[in-house]
Amino acid sequence: MSSLFRAALRASCLSAAVVAVLCFPLPAVADAPAEAEADADPAADPQMTTLEAVRVSGTRDPNEAERALVPGGVSLLDGEAFYQRPVNNMSDALRYVPGLWTESGTGGDAVYFSSRGSNLDATGYDGNGMKLFQDGLPVTTADGNNHNRALDPAAARHVVVARGANALTYGASTLGGAVDFTSPTARNSPGSQAFLAAGSHGLRNARVTLGGVSGDFDGMVTLDAKERDGYRVHSRQDRGALYANAGWQQGDGFDLRVFATWIDSDEELAGPLTRAQFDADPYQAQPSAVSGNYQLNVRTTRLAAKGTWHAGDGRRFEFGVSRDDQHLYHPIVDKVMVDFDGPGPQPPTEVFSLLKDTDQRTTAAMARYNARFGDHDVLAGINLAWTREWGGQYRNDGGRRNGLSTRVDNRSGSVELFVVDRWKFAPGWTLVYGGQGVATSRDVRNTAVASGELRNPKADYASFNPRLGVIRALGNGAEAYASLGRLYEAPTTFELEDDVRGDGSTLDAMHGNVVEAGLRGTIAGDASRPHWKWDVSAYYARVHDEILSVDDPDAPGTSLSSNVDRTIHAGVEVLAGAILPLGAGAHSIEPLVSASWNAFSFDGDPDYGDNTLPGAPRYVVRGEVMYRHDSGFYAGPTFDLVGRRHADFSNTYEVGAHQLLGLRVGVERERWSLFGEVRNLRDEAYVGQLAVRDRAGAGDALLQAGETRSLYVGMRLRF
């Protein structure tokens, strides 16, 4: 790890230099008219009367305040809204976040997600491209892997989604940005409550939370149990979970909190289908998924502690540590049989199958310091993470281990330092500038049991990623923003091991530059006037050395990881909503629309030219139009409009567009709430998730069906 520390030192020096510049004391600029007014003697004018000073104070949500200082796309989600509709997985929770493409192949926790064109990879394995945080502490492994760590959105009080380079204030070095899930506590959520949900495809979910506050101390514990049969064959899931946290709050200045998480999830995987299989029955399982008993079984234990100190005068210091232990049992490839002598007397021979059985441990830490110096609001921080994965790859015999084939011992570490200054240099103007230093290491050790051969690709990566932006207040609750930044993401350990060259050399990190501009704002309304909100952003990124799984030249039809010279990631993201009062204000209509237009492509590639990158649709529009009554009743339609997309880099295999309609209804009261939702009212058979190939053929298994017509109901009781 000495090379990692040397790289970290270089990144630290760069970041420290920026910190020194940002934090250098600046001379105060006197307000001459204000001073003159203060020096005036009111007693000199008998017409003047001296009044006592009146101080007006208010509290602004810290997430909203932080978002207002970001010159780019950031979405804030309220966890309370997740109890007004069925949120069965992360895809449901992130439904109305523009710029994201999220889908589940079976409706379970195994969700594919992509942000601004990240993770458009043929393997679909790592789930990299976005960094996940829980209470500000990294959850994503040190190498950027998310594939076996699903966060439960129902266990979040708030969710912040910072897209692309806008994740600088989290220190995230990924193409897609960051997602931070903040846990509910007994101080910011109903201390005790029960939640029950049921619905189509055998869904049964029960959640009980107990908590309370006693002086400086508070605590909360949640037990969750979930079962579902799934809308496809071989897609059952059973999950049990415990979430707990306890805090000690010393006045308004210091808060110390500890967190504990335990999750036991067993999930069957139905696998992708060929086009002929999909047309015959889109909800069947891939035959090899049944015979190979494909599963994603994960046991997770997490312990964390976080402290927050409000030191006064606009200063805040946060620090925390966490340890995440996971056990993965993952049968994923059935026996591949080859009959070497054709019609001869020898039976077919198994040449490959795969069952992954590994343990993974991630130790992480973070620290952040926020201070105000006159017109400067400075935020600096560091993320640290170390991950080790050990165990083995086995032959798969119907979901049972059938002999060890490869010993696995992978290690990775990462250091991310960041600093950003939000300088209000003139009335209505904020200049945002700063940067991130990242140093990360990869050490892959895969030993073939039969031959004893060791594959040991290893590398260190380091980069400094600057950021510059401006925010202009336009008045009437609106503002415009623009920014320029650098994107950077190092390969995961899986991508290094899956390198197309297979000669021990290592992949380069993905990097590029992005520009972004947008408008956002809110116009407050009342019982007689509409309330409007909007956020529109456009971005354009040129990415170099993007890691994609392209065709193996030595084994056509097999995709392996490779650096692609140049790609373009561009798009427009829109989130717009309104509250339109009717009559005297007891009734209202509330439309909400999230829309994304994507332009992801190769850029003059020698093999693919300017072809569109596969995986993500050309456009996605999701929305709802709710009628609400001040009694708490609400109802209205939902809709999804999803454009065409390709399933291969050669753009020869296209998946058609689809349109979905749904209906939501519910009642919100002080102590209880009910909801119901019908999805896919027209029972349209459509492709939800798909796999990607270099050059796809009609017989390739690529397609996974989206959810059929479904009905869900839920009830929450607060005590």
What structural category characterises the helix and strand content? mainly beta
CATH architecture: Beta Barrel
The average pLDDT is 89
Q: Main beta sheet, described?
A: 22 strands, antiparallel, barrel
Rounded to the nearest angstrom, the radius of gyration is: 27 Å
Q: List the domain count as a whole number.
A: 1
Termini Cα gap: 52 Å
Proportion of residues in extended strands: over 45%
- What would CATH call the class? Mainly Beta
Shape: globular
Number of helices: 7
- Fraction of residues in helix: under 10%
**Can you tell me the CATH superfamily?**
TonB-dependent receptor, beta-barrel domain
Assign the CATH topology. Maltoporin, Chain A
The tally of strands reads: 35
Q: Give unreliable regions as ranges.
A: 1-59
Structure keywords:
35 strands, 22-stranded antiparallel beta barrel, disordered N terminus, 719 residues, mainly beta, Maltoporin, Chain A, 8% helix
Describe this structure in words.
- By secondary structure, this protein is mainly beta.
- Strand 24 (531-551) and strand 25 form a beta hairpin.
- The strands form five sheets. It has a 22-stranded antiparallel β-barrel. A five-stranded mixed sheet has the order 1-6-7-4-5. The chain has a two-stranded antiparallel sheet with strand order 2-3.
- The chain is globular, with a radius of gyration of 27 Å.
- The protein is built from seven helices and 35 strands.
- It has one domain: TonB-dependent receptor, beta-barrel domain (Maltoporin, Chain A, Beta Barrel).
- Residues 1-59 have low confidence and may be disordered.
- The two termini are 52 Å apart.
